[in-house]
């Protein structure tokens, strides 16, 4: 009898615990107005990448993240909060950025994130600040010339968890096997150690990788259009408006082109003139 | 949560299968390797004892993730191409074998040394005495701790997520970023892990009580 | 050879040492936290208080049978729903503390149970209260038996902090990945270096426990 009672109490309390956890999991977050809070603290917290050359890369010498997106985020912060406004940076990966935004750990994501219809169901985006396209990175001399060459059994493509490029592979090369690593540094290391024939993601990111890793080249051109946007939580119309407004100002003042040139000016295969705004 | 099970059932099932598969493979091999080093540690040969000591101390004091990543990243560059599942299983085997060696050794030590002497006096060789007299008794003592090692193995197999080993945790990460329903996904994953580990851990506690 | 010399430049080593520092800080705080919380949970489990002990027991059993990686995800992604926003450092400390304290609770419970019940009876017969007997007689003896298990649990804790790279904790493992992610010739040197660093920290702790063990017995 005692045993039965214990068993029942175990089952009941485990169900209760589950219920509590689920309730936590699905509870919508009552977010305050980001702009008001940012103005009070004089800080905007941005989620940026730390493993992506040219966009956001950790500088080992002083533990600071540097790149196009970091400079853009700083410029936008100054536009929104004034010249004394502070930009805080939190490192994110493709798989951690969405939960962090929805939980309110960060105010905005500026981390090579493409505006897609599926994501628009979950978050809001600013206007696009960079136009990328998905491409392939392979070892020099590889027989793979386009994404079609990967559409056979036994081909392995490397990508990153939470990026939409892995979903695109399923569309363009449905027969290939996709391995999803946790970030770009991992994916690049996996490509080098021969875990897959090609690494796929957006051309801007791949260009940075080919600069760092001689012997690896972009191939096949861009086979999708990937406009990057700043992701923010839904129901923040003021923040979205301010971001778009700040973006326009940064573009008109020529600051955008300066930042663009600083990061992409010397990258082979990148035509900065075409990307200027 | 029910939606997660409904929409991603096949992925979850695949992950569950891979987790079980790699845990069982790793258990078998780490049991063999671990027992081998445990026997080395109790042999009269000083050379074998030193080898065993070094193996055990090295792999007990380095994180599993480092060992696994080593096999995923370094070995393919210099030796042979191995995929994430294999790299993860090898890493788990090596890591766990060091712990199993310790467990089995303490099992052997808890067998009365008179048993060994008696067997030797009756004309058995050292190895025969080990094989037929000491080890069978030692294994009875170590079944509950070995069961606990297996539970740890199942939990530790989540490192396969780092090397794209298609295990339960990997599928969890994929589903979480696809459905964007992070918490519900991880709760589902947690339930699936508990299905394996919880009954095992109650069973081991029962065995411990029975043997004590 | 040149790869090794380049890889072990002061800039890279300095960056790794920063990672090691985070690993050590997170470990030390989690060890202290889980030791305190674990002992409380273990004693509650042992003395068998009605209603409380079974619930605590269930909590312990569920947590300790889940992979640590999941607990890390729960704290990092789940807690903000309850109003906390932990940084990756605090999320890791919290996850490690909760997870390890359930492991330690088991060690404490079985350590106390291993002390001869006659000791308790004797102490009570000599006029000590239950609490006094527990504190002055039972716990010190149980402690002696628990030390090896506790220390190996703490070593596991230090090693397991490496899992938190998945939520971008800037620890030793993460910093090594950043370094070799930028230059592939550094991969092998970095792996050797972090293996040595982890080994030194963990092995030092196990040597410490051995000398402690010798001094107490």
From TrEMBL, chain A:
SUPFAM superfamilies on file: Periplasmic binding protein-like II
| UniProtKB keywords | Signal, Transport
InterPro entries reported for this sequence: Bact_solute-bind_prot3, Solute-binding_3/MltF_N
Solute-binding protein family 3/N-terminal domain segment(s): 43-267
Q: Where is the signal peptide?
A: 1-25
Gene3D superfamilies of this UniProt entry? Periplasmic binding protein-like II
BP GO terms, sorted: amino acid transport
Which Pfam families does the protein's record reference? SBP_bac_3
User: Would you name any one GO CC term?
Assistant: outer membrane-bounded periplasmic space
Entry superkingdom: Bacteria
UniProt keyword Signal present: yes
Keyword Signal assigned to the entry: answer is yes
- What family does the Swiss-Prot or TrEMBL record give for this protein? Belongs to the bacterial solute-binding protein 3 family.
Q: What is this protein called?
A: Glutamine ABC transporter substrate-binding protein
**Upper lineage ranks?**
Bacteria, Bacillati, Bacillota, Bacilli, Lactobacillales
TrEMBL record, chain B:
Its domain of life reads Bacteria
Q: Output a single Gene Ontology CC term carried by this record.
A: ATP-binding cassette (ABC) transporter complex
Mark the transmembrane ranges: 16-40, 61-79, 183-203
Give UniProt keywords alphabetically.
Amino-acid transport, Cell membrane, Membrane, Transmembrane, Transmembrane helix, Transport
What InterPro entries does the database record attribute to this sequence?
AA_ABC_transptr_permease_3TM, ArtM/GltK/GlnP/TcyL/YhdX-like, MetI-like, MetI-like_sf
Q: Does the keyword Transmembrane helix apply?
A: yes
Q: How does it sit in the membrane?
A: Multi-pass membrane protein
Domain (ABC transmembrane type-1) ranges: 16-204
Sample GO molecular function, one term? transmembrane transporter activity
The processes (GO biological process) annotated in the record are:
amino acid transport
Subcellular location field: Cell membrane
Q: Which NCBIfam families match?
A: HEQRo_perm_3TM
Q: Which family does it belong to?
A: Belongs to the binding-protein-dependent transport system permease family.
- Which PANTHER family would you find in this protein's record? GLUTAMINE ABC TRANSPORTER PERMEASE PROTEIN GLNM-RELATED (PTHR30614:SF7), MEMBRANE COMPONENT OF AMINO ACID ABC TRANSPORTER (PTHR30614)
**Protein's UniProt name:** Glutamine ABC transporter permease protein
UniProtKB/TrEMBL annotation, chain C:
Localization annotation: Cell membrane
Instruction: Show where the ABC transmembrane type-1 domain sits.
Output: 20-209
**TM segment ranges:** 20-44, 56-77, 187-208
Matching InterPro entries = AA_ABC_transptr_permease_3TM, ArtM/GltK/GlnP/TcyL/YhdX-like, MetI-like, MetI-like_sf
Q: Which residues, if any, are the signal sequence?
A: none
Pfam families found in the cross-reference section: BPD_transp_1
| A single GO BP | amino acid transport
Q: What GO molecular function annotation could you give as one example from this UniProt entry?
A: transmembrane transporter activity
Sorted UniProt keywords: Amino-acid transport, Cell membrane, Membrane, Transmembrane, Transmembrane helix, Transport
Report the GO terms under cellular component. Answer: ATP-binding cassette (ABC) transporter complex
Record flagged with keyword Cell membrane: yes
Membrane topology reported for the UniProt record? Multi-pass membrane protein
Q: Which PROSITE patterns does the annotation name?
A: ABC_TM1
Q: Which family does it belong to?
A: Belongs to the binding-protein-dependent transport system permease family.
Protein name in UniProt:
Glutamine ABC transporter permease protein
Organism of origin: Secundilactobacillus mixtipabuli
Traced from the root, the source organism's taxonomic lineage reads: Bacteria, Bacillati, Bacillota, Bacilli, Lactobacillales
């Amino acid at each position: 009898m005692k045993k039965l009672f214990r068993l029942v109490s175990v089952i009941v309390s485990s169900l209760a615990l589950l219920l509590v956890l689920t309730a936590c999991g699905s509870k919508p977050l009552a977010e305050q107005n980001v702009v008001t809070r940012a103005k009070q603290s004089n800080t905007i917290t941005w989620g940026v990448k730390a493993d992506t050359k040219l966009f956001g890369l950790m500088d080992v010498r002083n533990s600071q993240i540097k790149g196009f997106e970091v400079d853009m985020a700083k410029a936008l912060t100054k536009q929104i909060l004034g010249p004394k406004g502070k930009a805080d940076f939190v490192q994110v990966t493709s798989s951690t950025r969405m939960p962090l935004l929805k939980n309110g750990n960060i105010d905005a994501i500026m981390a090579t994130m493409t505006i897609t219809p599926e994501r628009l169901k979950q978050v809001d985006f600013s206007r696009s600040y960079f136009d990328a396209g998905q491409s392939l990175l392979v070892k020099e001399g590889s027989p793979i010339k386009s994404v079609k060459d990967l559409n056979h059994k036994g081909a392995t493509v490397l990508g990153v968890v939470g990026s939409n490029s892995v979903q695109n592979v399923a569309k363009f090369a449905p027969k290939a096997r996709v391995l999803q690593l946790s970030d770009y540094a991992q994916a690049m290391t996996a490509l080098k150690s021969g875990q897959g024939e090609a690494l796929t993601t957006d051309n801007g990111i791949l260009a940075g990788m080919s600069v760092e890793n001689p012997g690896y080249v972009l191939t096949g051109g861009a086979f999708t259009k990937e406009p990057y946007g700043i992701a923010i939580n839904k129901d923040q119309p003021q923040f979205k408006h301010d971001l778009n407004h700040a973006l326009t100002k940064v573009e008109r003042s020529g600051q955008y082109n300066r930042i663009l040139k600083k990061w992409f000016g010397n990258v082979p295969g990148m035509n900065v003139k075409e990307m200027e705004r | 949560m029910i939606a997660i099970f409904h929409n991603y059932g096949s992925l979850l099932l695949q992950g569950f299968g891979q987790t079980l598969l790699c845990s069982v493979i790793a258990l078998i091999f780490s049991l063999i390797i671990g027992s081998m080093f445990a026997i080395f540690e109790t042999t009269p040969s000083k050379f074998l004892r030193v080898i065993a000591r070094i193996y055990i101390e090295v792999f007990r004091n380095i994180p599993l993730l480092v060992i696994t990543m080593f096999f995923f990243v370094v070995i393919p560059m210099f030796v042979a191409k191995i995929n994430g599942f294999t790299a993860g299983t090898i890493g788990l085997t090596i890591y766990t074998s060091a712990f199993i060696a310790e467990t089995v050794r303490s099992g052997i030590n808890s067998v009365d040394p008179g048993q060994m002497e008696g067997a030797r006096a009756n004309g058995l060789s050292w190895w025969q005495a080990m094989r037929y007299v000491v080890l069978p008794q030692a294994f009875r003592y170590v079944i509950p701790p070995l069961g606990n090692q297996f539970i740890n193995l199942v939990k530790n197999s989540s490192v396969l997520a780092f090397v794209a080993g298609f295990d339960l945790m990997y599928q969890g990460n994929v589903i979480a970023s696809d459905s964007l329903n992070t918490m519900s996904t991880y709760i589902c994953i947690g339930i699936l892990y508990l299905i394996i580990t919880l009954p095992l851990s109650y069973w081991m506690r029962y065995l411990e009580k029975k043997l004590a | 050879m040149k790869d090794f010399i380049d890889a072990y430049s002061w800039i890279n080593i300095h960056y790794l040492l920063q990672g090691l520092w985070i690993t050590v800080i997170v470990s030390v705080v989690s060890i202290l936290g889980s030791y305190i919380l674990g002992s409380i949970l273990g004693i509650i489990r042992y003395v068998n208080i009605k209603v409380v002990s079974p619930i605590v027991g269930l909590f312990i059993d569920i947590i300790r049978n889940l992979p640590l990686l999941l607990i890390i995800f729960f704290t990092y992604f789940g807690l903000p729903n309850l109003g906390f926003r932990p940084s990756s450092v605090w999320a890791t400390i919290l996850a490690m503390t909760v997870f390890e304290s359930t492991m330690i609770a088991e060690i404490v419970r079985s350590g106390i149970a291993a002390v001869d019940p006659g000791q308790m009876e004797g102490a009570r017969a000599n006029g000590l209260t239950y609490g006094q007997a527990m504190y002055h007689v039972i716990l010190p003896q149980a402690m002696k038996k628990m030390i090896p298990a506790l220390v190996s649990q703490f070593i596991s804790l230090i090693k397991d902090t490496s899992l938190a790279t998945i939520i971008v904790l800037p620890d030793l493992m993460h910093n090594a990945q950043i370094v070799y992610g930028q230059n592939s010739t550094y991969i092998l040197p970095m792996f050797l270096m972090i293996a040595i660093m982890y080994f030194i920290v963990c092995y030092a702790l196990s040597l410490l426990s051995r000398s402690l063990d010798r001094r107490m017995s």
